[in-house]
Amino acid sequence: MSTTTITGTINGVNNTALANKWITFRLVQLGTDSGATATVAQSVDSVQTDANGDFSIDVWNNGDSGKTSVLEITIDGSKPESVIIPAGTASIELWDLIENEQADNGTSEQLPVVSELFLRKSNNLSDVSNKVTASQNLDLEVGVDVQAHSAILDATTASFTTAKDTAISTNATNISGNATGIGYNLTGITINATDIATNATNIALKAPIASPTFTGTVNTSATGIDFNPGVAGNGGELSWNNTEKTLNLVTGSDNVTIQIGQEVVLYCRNTTGVQMTDGQVVKVVGSQGNNPTIALAQADTVANARGVIGVATQIIPNNSNGFISLIGKVRDLTLDSGTYAEGDLVYLSDTVAGAITRVRPDIGVEIGRVIATSTGGNNAGVLEVSINSEVAVHELEQELLPLIALKAPLASPNFTNSASIDGDTILAINAIGVDVQQHSSILDDTTASFTTAIALAITDNSAKVTYPSADSTKLAGYSPIAIITEATTARSLALTDIGAYIRLTNAASCTITLPANATVAWASETEPPTIYFRVAAAGIPTLSNAGVTVNDPLGVIASLAEGSNFELQWVASDVWDII
Question: 61 near 89, Cβ under 8 Å?
Answer without folding.
Answer: yes
